[in-house]
Amino acid sequence: MGGEAKDGLVAGHVSLWYGDSQALRDVSLEMRPREVTALIGPSGCGKSTFLRCLNRMNDRIPGCRVEGSFRLGDQDLYRDVDSYELRRRVGMVFQRPSPFPLSIYENVAYGVKRHLRRGKSQLDATVERSLTEVGLWDEVKDKLNDAGTSLSGGQQQRLCIARALAVDPEVILMDEPTSALDPIATSSIEELAASISRERTVVIVTHNMQQAARIARRTAFFYLGELVEVAETRELFATPKDKRTEDYLTGRFG
Amino acid sequence: MALSTTSKRRLERRGQFISGLAVLLVVVLVCTLIFMVCSRGIATFTRDGVPLGSFLTGRTWNPHQSNELGQPTVGALPMVLGSFGVTLLSCAFSLPFALGASIFVVEVAPTFGRKFFRPLVELLTGIPSVVFGVIGLTMVVPWTRSWAGGTGYGILSSSIVLALMIFPTMMSLTADALSAVPDSYRDGSYGLGCTRWQTVCHVVLPTALPGILTATIMGMARAFGEALAVQMVIGNAAQMPSSLLTPASTLTSIITTSMGNEAMGTVYNDVLWSLALILLIMSMAFILLVHLVGRKGSSND
Asked: Is residue B12 one of the residues assigned to a domain?
Protein backbone atom coordinates (compact mmCIF):
# COMPACT_ATOMS: atom_id res chain seq x y z
CA MET A 1 0.00 0.00 0.00
CA GLY A 2 1.44 3.36 -0.97
CA GLY A 3 1.25 6.45 1.11
CA GLU A 4 -1.60 8.90 0.95
CA ALA A 5 -1.55 11.58 -1.69
CA LYS A 6 0.17 14.49 0.02
CA ASP A 7 0.33 16.93 -2.83
CA GLY A 8 -2.36 18.28 -5.05
CA LEU A 9 -2.14 18.87 -8.77
CA VAL A 10 -1.51 22.41 -9.85
CA ALA A 11 -2.02 23.56 -13.41
CA GLY A 12 -0.65 26.99 -14.26
CA HIS A 13 -1.49 29.05 -17.36
CA VAL A 14 -2.27 26.05 -19.51
CA SER A 15 -3.04 26.60 -23.18
CA LEU A 16 -3.52 23.80 -25.68
CA TRP A 17 -3.80 23.62 -29.44
CA TYR A 18 -4.99 20.85 -31.74
CA GLY A 19 -3.18 21.92 -34.89
CA ASP A 20 -4.28 25.52 -35.34
CA SER A 21 -7.39 25.48 -33.19
CA GLN A 22 -6.98 26.43 -29.58
CA ALA A 23 -8.82 24.18 -27.17
CA LEU A 24 -7.65 25.60 -23.83
CA ARG A 25 -6.90 29.23 -22.97
CA ASP A 26 -4.74 30.11 -20.03
CA VAL A 27 -6.27 27.70 -17.53
CA SER A 28 -4.94 27.79 -13.99
CA LEU A 29 -6.42 25.38 -11.49
CA GLU A 30 -5.42 23.75 -8.26
CA MET A 31 -6.78 20.31 -7.54
CA ARG A 32 -6.31 19.73 -3.83
CA PRO A 33 -5.07 16.45 -2.40
CA ARG A 34 -7.57 13.89 -1.08
CA GLU A 35 -10.52 15.76 -2.46
CA VAL A 36 -12.88 15.34 -5.38
CA THR A 37 -12.63 18.17 -7.87
CA ALA A 38 -15.33 18.24 -10.54
CA LEU A 39 -14.91 19.81 -13.97
CA ILE A 40 -18.21 20.82 -15.52
CA GLY A 41 -19.25 22.68 -18.63
CA PRO A 42 -21.01 22.17 -21.96
CA SER A 43 -19.70 19.75 -24.62
CA GLY A 44 -16.53 20.93 -26.30
CA CYS A 45 -15.62 23.33 -23.50
CA GLY A 46 -12.23 21.69 -23.00
CA LYS A 47 -12.85 19.95 -19.68
CA SER A 48 -11.94 16.49 -21.01
CA THR A 49 -8.98 17.93 -22.91
CA PHE A 50 -7.77 19.51 -19.69
CA LEU A 51 -8.22 16.23 -17.82
CA ARG A 52 -6.20 14.35 -20.42
CA CYS A 53 -3.34 16.83 -20.00
CA LEU A 54 -3.01 15.80 -16.39
CA ASN A 55 -1.58 12.40 -17.30
CA ARG A 56 -0.33 13.40 -20.73
CA MET A 57 -2.80 11.24 -22.66
CA ASN A 58 -2.87 14.07 -25.19
CA ASP A 59 0.75 13.25 -26.08
CA ARG A 60 -0.65 10.51 -28.28
CA ILE A 61 -2.68 12.90 -30.42
CA PRO A 62 -0.69 14.14 -33.41
CA GLY A 63 -0.61 17.91 -33.75
CA CYS A 64 -1.43 18.53 -30.10
CA ARG A 65 0.65 21.23 -28.40
CA VAL A 66 0.56 22.15 -24.72
CA GLU A 67 1.91 25.24 -22.97
CA GLY A 68 1.92 26.06 -19.29
CA SER A 69 2.93 24.01 -16.30
CA PHE A 70 1.56 21.07 -14.41
CA ARG A 71 2.93 20.30 -11.00
CA LEU A 72 2.41 17.35 -8.69
CA GLY A 73 4.14 18.36 -5.49
CA ASP A 74 7.51 19.74 -6.45
CA GLN A 75 7.69 17.88 -9.75
CA ASP A 76 6.83 19.24 -13.17
CA LEU A 77 4.75 16.57 -14.91
CA TYR A 78 6.04 17.44 -18.37
CA ARG A 79 9.72 17.87 -17.47
CA ASP A 80 10.69 15.93 -14.37
CA VAL A 81 8.70 12.73 -14.86
CA ASP A 82 8.58 10.36 -17.79
CA SER A 83 5.11 9.87 -19.18
CA TYR A 84 4.93 6.17 -18.28
CA GLU A 85 5.79 6.82 -14.64
CA LEU A 86 3.42 9.79 -14.63
CA ARG A 87 0.50 7.68 -15.84
CA ARG A 88 1.17 5.09 -13.17
CA ARG A 89 0.97 7.84 -10.54
CA VAL A 90 -1.95 9.60 -12.21
CA GLY A 91 -4.42 6.91 -13.24
CA MET A 92 -7.35 7.32 -15.56
CA VAL A 93 -10.88 5.96 -15.85
CA PHE A 94 -12.58 6.42 -19.19
CA GLN A 95 -16.06 7.27 -20.32
CA ARG A 96 -16.96 3.84 -21.61
CA PRO A 97 -16.09 0.89 -19.41
CA SER A 98 -13.52 -0.96 -21.50
CA PRO A 99 -11.91 -3.88 -19.73
CA PHE A 100 -9.19 -5.65 -21.69
CA PRO A 101 -10.34 -8.87 -23.41
CA LEU A 102 -8.77 -10.79 -20.55
CA SER A 103 -10.02 -12.46 -17.38
CA ILE A 104 -11.17 -10.39 -14.42
CA TYR A 105 -7.98 -11.31 -12.56
CA GLU A 106 -5.71 -10.45 -15.49
CA ASN A 107 -7.48 -7.12 -16.00
CA VAL A 108 -6.58 -6.01 -12.49
CA ALA A 109 -3.13 -7.58 -12.56
CA TYR A 110 -2.31 -6.07 -15.96
CA GLY A 111 -0.77 -2.79 -14.84
CA VAL A 112 1.04 -4.31 -11.88
CA LYS A 113 2.66 -6.94 -14.07
CA ARG A 114 3.89 -4.30 -16.51
CA HIS A 115 5.50 -2.19 -13.75
CA LEU A 116 6.80 -4.56 -11.12
CA ARG A 117 8.10 -8.04 -10.84
CA ARG A 118 5.71 -9.49 -8.31
CA GLY A 119 5.30 -13.01 -7.01
CA LYS A 120 2.01 -14.81 -7.44
CA SER A 121 0.97 -14.32 -3.83
CA GLN A 122 1.74 -10.59 -3.86
CA LEU A 123 -0.16 -10.27 -7.12
CA ASP A 124 -3.12 -12.17 -5.66
CA ALA A 125 -3.12 -9.82 -2.68
CA THR A 126 -3.03 -6.73 -4.90
CA VAL A 127 -5.89 -8.04 -7.02
CA GLU A 128 -7.98 -8.81 -3.94
CA ARG A 129 -7.23 -5.44 -2.34
CA SER A 130 -8.10 -3.52 -5.51
CA LEU A 131 -11.31 -5.44 -6.14
CA THR A 132 -12.29 -5.00 -2.49
CA GLU A 133 -11.62 -1.28 -2.70
CA VAL A 134 -14.12 -0.96 -5.56
CA GLY A 135 -16.62 -3.26 -3.82
CA LEU A 136 -16.41 -5.93 -6.50
CA TRP A 137 -14.56 -8.65 -4.59
CA ASP A 138 -17.60 -10.43 -3.14
CA GLU A 139 -19.31 -10.41 -6.51
CA VAL A 140 -16.42 -11.84 -8.52
CA LYS A 141 -14.18 -13.76 -6.14
CA ASP A 142 -15.52 -17.10 -7.38
CA LYS A 143 -15.14 -16.24 -11.06
CA LEU A 144 -11.83 -14.43 -11.33
CA ASN A 145 -11.03 -16.37 -14.49
CA ASP A 146 -14.18 -15.28 -16.31
CA ALA A 147 -13.83 -12.67 -19.03
CA GLY A 148 -13.89 -9.09 -17.79
CA THR A 149 -16.40 -8.33 -20.52
CA SER A 150 -18.88 -10.84 -19.05
CA LEU A 151 -19.67 -8.39 -16.24
CA SER A 152 -22.44 -5.80 -16.34
CA GLY A 153 -21.67 -2.23 -17.41
CA GLY A 154 -21.42 -0.90 -13.88
CA GLN A 155 -19.29 -3.83 -12.77
CA GLN A 156 -17.03 -3.34 -15.81
CA GLN A 157 -16.50 0.29 -14.86
CA ARG A 158 -15.66 -0.71 -11.30
CA LEU A 159 -13.28 -3.30 -12.73
CA CYS A 160 -11.60 -0.52 -14.74
CA ILE A 161 -11.29 1.55 -11.56
CA ALA A 162 -9.80 -1.46 -9.76
CA ARG A 163 -7.37 -1.85 -12.65
CA ALA A 164 -6.28 1.76 -12.18
CA LEU A 165 -6.06 1.45 -8.38
CA ALA A 166 -3.94 -1.70 -8.59
CA VAL A 167 -0.82 0.28 -9.56
CA ASP A 168 -1.40 2.51 -6.52
CA PRO A 169 -1.73 5.96 -8.11
CA GLU A 170 -1.82 9.22 -6.14
CA VAL A 171 -4.39 10.76 -8.45
CA ILE A 172 -7.37 9.23 -10.26
CA LEU A 173 -8.78 11.06 -13.26
CA MET A 174 -12.32 10.17 -14.26
CA ASP A 175 -13.61 11.20 -17.66
CA GLU A 176 -17.41 11.11 -17.45
CA PRO A 177 -17.22 7.68 -15.83
CA THR A 178 -20.97 7.22 -15.48
CA SER A 179 -22.31 8.57 -18.77
CA ALA A 180 -22.75 5.03 -20.14
CA LEU A 181 -24.27 3.61 -16.96
CA ASP A 182 -27.73 3.25 -15.43
CA PRO A 183 -28.71 5.24 -12.30
CA ILE A 184 -27.93 2.45 -9.81
CA ALA A 185 -24.50 1.78 -11.27
CA THR A 186 -23.95 5.54 -11.39
CA SER A 187 -24.60 5.97 -7.69
CA SER A 188 -22.22 3.14 -6.83
CA ILE A 189 -19.47 4.79 -8.92
CA GLU A 190 -20.16 8.10 -7.19
CA GLU A 191 -19.83 6.52 -3.74
CA LEU A 192 -16.66 4.90 -4.95
CA ALA A 193 -15.21 8.22 -6.14
CA ALA A 194 -15.95 9.67 -2.72
CA SER A 195 -14.29 6.79 -0.90
CA ILE A 196 -11.24 6.83 -3.17
CA SER A 197 -10.80 10.52 -2.35
CA ARG A 198 -10.11 9.66 1.29
CA GLU A 199 -6.59 8.64 0.28
CA ARG A 200 -6.14 9.88 -3.26
CA THR A 201 -6.83 12.97 -5.27
CA VAL A 202 -9.80 12.59 -7.61
CA VAL A 203 -10.56 14.77 -10.62
CA ILE A 204 -13.85 14.00 -12.35
CA VAL A 205 -15.27 15.39 -15.57
CA THR A 206 -19.03 15.28 -15.63
CA HIS A 207 -21.94 16.45 -17.73
CA ASN A 208 -24.20 15.96 -14.80
CA MET A 209 -24.36 18.95 -12.46
CA GLN A 210 -26.15 16.97 -9.76
CA GLN A 211 -23.28 14.52 -9.82
CA ALA A 212 -20.81 17.33 -9.20
CA ALA A 213 -23.03 18.62 -6.41
CA ARG A 214 -23.23 15.17 -4.82
CA ILE A 215 -19.58 14.19 -4.73
CA ALA A 216 -17.25 17.14 -5.39
CA ARG A 217 -15.76 19.36 -2.72
CA ARG A 218 -14.82 21.91 -5.33
CA THR A 219 -16.14 22.44 -8.83
CA ALA A 220 -14.62 24.21 -11.81
CA PHE A 221 -16.74 25.54 -14.64
CA PHE A 222 -15.22 25.50 -18.14
CA TYR A 223 -16.62 27.36 -21.10
CA LEU A 224 -15.14 27.62 -24.61
CA GLY A 225 -11.70 26.53 -23.48
CA GLU A 226 -11.58 28.90 -20.55
CA LEU A 227 -11.82 28.23 -16.87
CA VAL A 228 -14.63 30.60 -15.95
CA GLU A 229 -14.98 29.97 -12.27
CA VAL A 230 -13.81 27.62 -9.56
CA ALA A 231 -15.15 27.48 -6.02
CA GLU A 232 -16.43 25.21 -3.28
CA THR A 233 -19.21 23.27 -4.98
CA ARG A 234 -21.93 24.52 -2.64
CA GLU A 235 -20.80 28.08 -3.12
CA LEU A 236 -20.55 27.76 -6.91
CA PHE A 237 -24.06 26.36 -7.18
CA ALA A 238 -25.61 28.78 -4.70
CA THR A 239 -23.92 32.01 -5.62
CA PRO A 240 -22.10 31.83 -8.95
CA LYS A 241 -20.02 34.95 -9.50
CA ASP A 242 -19.88 34.85 -13.27
CA LYS A 243 -22.92 35.41 -15.46
CA ARG A 244 -21.93 32.46 -17.73
CA THR A 245 -21.77 30.08 -14.79
CA GLU A 246 -25.17 31.19 -13.65
CA ASP A 247 -26.62 30.74 -17.14
CA TYR A 248 -25.19 27.24 -17.39
CA LEU A 249 -26.34 26.18 -13.93
CA THR A 250 -29.83 27.44 -14.54
CA GLY A 251 -29.99 25.58 -17.82
CA ARG A 252 -30.01 28.58 -20.09
CA PHE A 253 -27.42 26.93 -22.33
CA GLY A 254 -25.32 23.74 -22.66
CA MET B 1 -43.13 14.86 -60.93
CA ALA B 2 -43.54 11.84 -58.71
CA LEU B 3 -43.37 8.35 -60.17
CA SER B 4 -46.59 6.41 -60.07
CA THR B 5 -46.79 3.46 -57.72
CA THR B 6 -46.94 0.93 -60.54
CA SER B 7 -43.89 2.26 -62.33
CA LYS B 8 -42.03 2.36 -59.01
CA ARG B 9 -42.95 -1.23 -58.41
CA ARG B 10 -41.81 -2.18 -61.91
CA LEU B 11 -38.49 -0.43 -61.33
CA GLU B 12 -38.11 -2.30 -58.08
CA ARG B 13 -38.77 -5.63 -59.78
CA ARG B 14 -36.37 -4.86 -62.60
CA GLY B 15 -33.59 -4.02 -60.12
CA GLN B 16 -34.22 -7.22 -58.23
CA PHE B 17 -34.17 -9.20 -61.47
CA ILE B 18 -30.85 -7.79 -62.67
CA SER B 19 -29.02 -8.20 -59.37
CA GLY B 20 -30.59 -11.64 -58.88
CA LEU B 21 -29.43 -12.67 -62.32
CA ALA B 22 -25.88 -11.66 -61.50
CA VAL B 23 -25.93 -13.78 -58.39
CA LEU B 24 -27.43 -16.72 -60.23
CA LEU B 25 -24.76 -16.52 -62.93
CA VAL B 26 -21.95 -16.59 -60.40
CA VAL B 27 -23.51 -19.48 -58.50
CA VAL B 28 -23.96 -21.49 -61.71
CA LEU B 29 -20.41 -20.70 -62.76
CA VAL B 30 -18.88 -21.81 -59.48
CA CYS B 31 -20.99 -24.96 -59.33
CA THR B 32 -20.18 -26.03 -62.89
CA LEU B 33 -16.51 -25.30 -62.32
CA ILE B 34 -16.41 -27.46 -59.23
CA PHE B 35 -18.40 -30.15 -61.00
CA MET B 36 -16.07 -30.12 -64.00
CA VAL B 37 -12.88 -30.38 -61.97
CA CYS B 38 -14.43 -33.12 -59.85
CA SER B 39 -15.75 -35.20 -62.73
CA ARG B 40 -12.49 -34.97 -64.69
CA GLY B 41 -10.37 -35.48 -61.61
CA ILE B 42 -12.28 -38.58 -60.60
CA ALA B 43 -11.80 -40.17 -64.05
CA THR B 44 -8.28 -41.18 -63.03
CA PHE B 45 -9.71 -43.46 -60.40
CA THR B 46 -12.90 -44.62 -62.12
CA ARG B 47 -11.82 -44.97 -65.75
CA ASP B 48 -8.06 -45.44 -65.59
CA GLY B 49 -8.19 -47.70 -62.57
CA VAL B 50 -5.64 -45.94 -60.41
CA PRO B 51 -6.28 -46.65 -56.71
CA LEU B 52 -6.70 -43.43 -54.68
CA GLY B 53 -4.14 -44.61 -52.13
CA SER B 54 -1.38 -45.17 -54.62
CA PHE B 55 -2.13 -41.82 -56.23
CA LEU B 56 -1.78 -39.90 -52.99
CA THR B 57 1.16 -41.84 -51.57
CA GLY B 58 3.00 -42.93 -54.71
CA ARG B 59 6.49 -41.51 -54.94
CA THR B 60 7.04 -41.97 -58.66
CA TRP B 61 5.52 -39.70 -61.24
CA ASN B 62 5.67 -41.10 -64.76
CA PRO B 63 2.20 -41.11 -66.26
CA HIS B 64 3.45 -42.41 -69.62
CA GLN B 65 4.46 -45.73 -68.09
CA SER B 66 2.68 -48.43 -66.18
CA ASN B 67 3.83 -50.41 -63.20
CA GLU B 68 3.91 -54.21 -62.89
CA LEU B 69 0.15 -54.24 -62.13
CA GLY B 70 -0.58 -52.46 -65.37
CA GLN B 71 -1.55 -49.25 -63.58
CA PRO B 72 -0.03 -45.95 -64.67
CA THR B 73 2.70 -44.75 -62.29
CA VAL B 74 1.12 -41.55 -61.14
CA GLY B 75 2.28 -40.99 -57.56
CA ALA B 76 1.42 -37.42 -56.64
CA LEU B 77 3.27 -37.33 -53.33
CA PRO B 78 6.31 -35.41 -54.69
CA MET B 79 4.08 -32.59 -55.89
CA VAL B 80 1.94 -32.60 -52.76
CA LEU B 81 5.07 -32.34 -50.63
CA GLY B 82 6.48 -29.66 -52.92
CA SER B 83 3.32 -27.60 -52.62
CA PHE B 84 3.14 -27.86 -48.86
CA GLY B 85 6.87 -27.22 -48.59
CA VAL B 86 6.84 -23.94 -50.49
CA THR B 87 3.61 -22.86 -48.78
CA LEU B 88 4.82 -23.35 -45.23
CA LEU B 89 8.32 -22.08 -45.87
CA SER B 90 7.22 -18.94 -47.71
CA CYS B 91 4.80 -18.22 -44.88
CA ALA B 92 7.53 -18.66 -42.33
CA PHE B 93 9.69 -16.18 -44.28
CA SER B 94 6.92 -13.66 -44.81
CA LEU B 95 5.10 -13.64 -41.50
CA PRO B 96 7.77 -11.96 -39.33
CA PHE B 97 8.15 -9.16 -41.85
CA ALA B 98 4.40 -8.77 -42.32
CA LEU B 99 3.90 -8.64 -38.56
CA GLY B 100 6.75 -6.23 -37.95
CA ALA B 101 5.75 -3.93 -40.78
CA SER B 102 2.10 -3.84 -39.70
CA ILE B 103 3.01 -3.08 -36.11
CA PHE B 104 5.16 -0.23 -37.38
CA VAL B 105 2.54 1.30 -39.66
CA VAL B 106 -0.40 0.86 -37.29
CA GLU B 107 1.15 1.55 -33.90
CA VAL B 108 4.32 3.55 -34.50
CA ALA B 109 3.84 5.71 -37.58
CA PRO B 110 0.17 5.64 -38.63
CA THR B 111 0.40 8.67 -40.91
CA PHE B 112 3.44 7.34 -42.75
CA GLY B 113 1.68 4.00 -42.97
CA ARG B 114 -1.57 5.33 -44.34
CA LYS B 115 -0.12 7.82 -46.77
CA PHE B 116 2.99 6.09 -48.03
CA PHE B 117 3.72 2.55 -46.95
CA ARG B 118 0.38 0.84 -47.48
CA PRO B 119 -0.17 2.26 -50.98
CA LEU B 120 3.37 1.11 -51.76
CA VAL B 121 2.62 -2.39 -50.54
CA GLU B 122 -0.65 -2.46 -52.45
CA LEU B 123 1.35 -1.61 -55.55
CA LEU B 124 3.29 -4.79 -54.91
CA THR B 125 0.01 -6.75 -55.08
CA GLY B 126 -0.55 -5.52 -58.60
CA ILE B 127 2.78 -6.74 -59.97
CA PRO B 128 2.11 -9.75 -62.25
CA SER B 129 3.48 -13.04 -60.99
CA VAL B 130 5.64 -13.47 -64.10
CA VAL B 131 7.64 -10.45 -62.98
CA PHE B 132 8.29 -12.10 -59.65
CA GLY B 133 9.27 -15.21 -61.60
CA VAL B 134 11.77 -13.29 -63.68
CA ILE B 135 13.22 -11.63 -60.59
CA GLY B 136 13.48 -15.06 -58.99
CA LEU B 137 15.16 -16.46 -62.05
CA THR B 138 17.73 -13.68 -62.38
CA MET B 139 18.37 -12.89 -58.71
CA VAL B 140 17.24 -15.58 -56.32
CA VAL B 141 18.27 -18.68 -58.27
CA PRO B 142 21.84 -17.46 -58.96
CA TRP B 143 22.13 -16.33 -55.34
CA THR B 144 21.09 -19.74 -54.04
CA ARG B 145 23.42 -21.39 -56.50
CA SER B 146 26.29 -19.19 -55.35
CA TRP B 147 26.33 -20.52 -51.81
CA ALA B 148 24.60 -23.88 -52.06
CA GLY B 149 25.97 -25.14 -55.33
CA GLY B 150 23.80 -27.25 -57.58
CA THR B 151 21.39 -25.59 -59.96
CA GLY B 152 19.91 -23.08 -57.56
CA TYR B 153 16.42 -24.22 -58.52
CA GLY B 154 14.32 -25.73 -55.77
CA ILE B 155 11.94 -25.30 -52.89
CA LEU B 156 14.10 -22.71 -51.13
CA SER B 157 14.29 -20.38 -54.12
CA SER B 158 10.56 -20.78 -54.75
CA SER B 159 9.78 -20.04 -51.14
CA ILE B 160 11.80 -16.83 -51.22
CA VAL B 161 10.00 -15.66 -54.36
CA LEU B 162 6.62 -16.67 -52.91
CA ALA B 163 7.41 -14.93 -49.64
CA LEU B 164 7.80 -11.69 -51.60
CA MET B 165 4.56 -12.36 -53.44
CA ILE B 166 2.42 -13.12 -50.41
CA PHE B 167 3.92 -10.34 -48.27
CA PRO B 168 1.46 -7.66 -49.46
CA THR B 169 -1.55 -9.88 -48.76
CA MET B 170 -0.33 -10.89 -45.35
CA MET B 171 0.83 -7.42 -44.39
CA SER B 172 -2.36 -5.66 -45.48
CA LEU B 173 -4.61 -8.15 -43.71
CA THR B 174 -2.45 -8.12 -40.58
CA ALA B 175 -2.46 -4.32 -40.53
CA ASP B 176 -6.27 -4.38 -40.90
CA ALA B 177 -6.48 -6.78 -37.98
CA LEU B 178 -4.32 -4.51 -35.81
CA SER B 179 -6.28 -1.40 -36.80
CA ALA B 180 -9.50 -3.17 -35.84
CA VAL B 181 -8.35 -3.44 -32.21
CA PRO B 182 -10.48 -0.85 -30.36
CA ASP B 183 -8.57 2.26 -29.33
CA SER B 184 -10.13 1.97 -25.89
CA TYR B 185 -7.84 -1.02 -25.23
CA ARG B 186 -4.80 1.07 -26.13
CA ASP B 187 -6.03 3.99 -24.02
CA GLY B 188 -6.57 1.62 -21.12
CA SER B 189 -3.07 0.26 -21.38
CA TYR B 190 -1.32 3.60 -21.92
CA GLY B 191 -3.47 5.06 -19.14
CA LEU B 192 -1.90 2.55 -16.75
CA GLY B 193 1.55 3.79 -17.68
CA CYS B 194 2.42 0.96 -20.05
CA THR B 195 4.86 1.54 -22.88
CA ARG B 196 3.97 1.15 -26.51
CA TRP B 197 5.78 -2.16 -26.74
CA GLN B 198 3.99 -3.52 -23.67
CA THR B 199 0.68 -2.38 -25.13
CA VAL B 200 1.41 -4.05 -28.46
CA CYS B 201 2.58 -7.33 -26.91
CA HIS B 202 0.00 -7.69 -24.19
CA VAL B 203 -3.13 -6.08 -25.60
CA VAL B 204 -2.99 -5.41 -29.33
CA LEU B 205 -1.45 -8.65 -30.62
CA PRO B 206 -3.54 -11.03 -28.47
CA THR B 207 -6.71 -9.19 -29.47
CA ALA B 208 -5.79 -9.24 -33.14
CA LEU B 209 -4.69 -12.89 -33.13
CA PRO B 210 -7.68 -14.30 -35.05
CA GLY B 211 -7.16 -11.64 -37.70
CA ILE B 212 -3.45 -12.40 -37.90
CA LEU B 213 -4.26 -16.09 -38.32
CA THR B 214 -6.67 -15.23 -41.10
CA ALA B 215 -3.96 -13.17 -42.78
CA THR B 216 -1.58 -16.10 -42.54
CA ILE B 217 -4.06 -18.53 -44.00
CA MET B 218 -4.89 -16.17 -46.87
CA GLY B 219 -1.17 -15.86 -47.54
CA MET B 220 -0.83 -19.64 -47.50
CA ALA B 221 -3.77 -20.00 -49.87
CA ARG B 222 -2.11 -17.61 -52.28
CA ALA B 223 1.25 -19.37 -52.03
CA PHE B 224 -0.39 -22.77 -52.49
CA GLY B 225 -2.20 -21.70 -55.62
CA GLU B 226 0.57 -19.69 -57.29
CA ALA B 227 1.76 -21.45 -60.45
CA LEU B 228 3.75 -19.31 -62.83
CA ALA B 229 6.40 -17.77 -60.60
CA VAL B 230 6.95 -21.07 -58.85
CA GLN B 231 7.26 -22.93 -62.11
CA MET B 232 10.03 -20.57 -63.18
CA VAL B 233 12.25 -21.15 -60.15
CA ILE B 234 11.48 -24.58 -58.70
CA GLY B 235 13.16 -26.64 -61.40
CA ASN B 236 10.12 -28.75 -62.27
CA ALA B 237 11.57 -32.13 -61.43
CA ALA B 238 8.75 -34.46 -60.52
CA GLN B 239 10.74 -36.34 -57.94
CA MET B 240 10.59 -36.70 -54.20
CA PRO B 241 12.15 -33.54 -52.76
CA SER B 242 15.27 -34.71 -50.94
CA SER B 243 16.38 -31.25 -49.87
CA LEU B 244 15.26 -27.64 -50.15
CA LEU B 245 18.02 -27.01 -52.66
CA THR B 246 17.31 -29.64 -55.31
CA PRO B 247 14.84 -29.17 -58.14
CA ALA B 248 11.32 -30.16 -57.21
CA SER B 249 7.80 -29.41 -58.37
CA THR B 250 4.41 -28.42 -57.02
CA LEU B 251 0.87 -29.37 -57.96
CA THR B 252 0.48 -26.11 -59.83
CA SER B 253 3.83 -26.13 -61.58
CA ILE B 254 3.34 -29.64 -62.93
CA ILE B 255 -0.11 -28.74 -64.23
CA THR B 256 1.12 -25.65 -66.06
CA THR B 257 4.13 -27.46 -67.54
CA SER B 258 2.24 -30.51 -68.74
CA MET B 259 -1.36 -29.57 -69.43
CA GLY B 260 -0.74 -28.13 -72.90
CA ASN B 261 1.15 -31.18 -74.09
CA GLU B 262 -1.24 -33.98 -73.22
CA ALA B 263 -4.34 -34.80 -75.26
CA MET B 264 -7.76 -34.83 -73.62
CA GLY B 265 -8.87 -38.23 -72.43
CA THR B 266 -5.41 -39.69 -71.99
CA VAL B 267 -4.35 -40.99 -68.62
CA TYR B 268 -1.81 -38.17 -68.29
CA ASN B 269 -4.50 -35.57 -68.86
CA ASP B 270 -6.86 -37.20 -66.39
CA VAL B 271 -4.17 -37.27 -63.72
CA LEU B 272 -3.49 -33.59 -64.17
CA TRP B 273 -7.17 -32.96 -63.49
CA SER B 274 -6.81 -35.03 -60.34
CA LEU B 275 -3.98 -32.75 -59.24
CA ALA B 276 -6.26 -29.81 -59.92
CA LEU B 277 -8.88 -31.50 -57.77
CA ILE B 278 -6.39 -31.70 -54.88
CA LEU B 279 -5.70 -27.99 -55.34
CA LEU B 280 -9.39 -27.21 -55.30
CA ILE B 281 -9.99 -29.21 -52.15
CA MET B 282 -7.04 -27.54 -50.44
CA SER B 283 -8.26 -24.06 -51.38
CA MET B 284 -11.66 -24.92 -49.97
CA ALA B 285 -9.97 -26.14 -46.80
CA PHE B 286 -8.13 -22.82 -46.51
CA ILE B 287 -11.33 -20.83 -46.98
CA LEU B 288 -13.13 -23.01 -44.47
CA LEU B 289 -10.32 -22.44 -42.00
CA VAL B 290 -10.57 -18.68 -42.47
CA HIS B 291 -14.28 -18.80 -41.68
CA LEU B 292 -13.74 -20.99 -38.64
CA VAL B 293 -11.02 -18.72 -37.29
CA GLY B 294 -13.18 -15.67 -38.03
CA ARG B 295 -16.12 -17.14 -36.19
CA LYS B 296 -14.00 -18.06 -33.20
CA GLY B 297 -12.57 -14.54 -33.14
CA SER B 298 -15.97 -12.87 -33.16
CA SER B 299 -17.40 -15.16 -30.49
CA ASN B 300 -14.58 -14.06 -28.15
CA ASP B 301 -15.61 -10.43 -28.27
From this structure: no
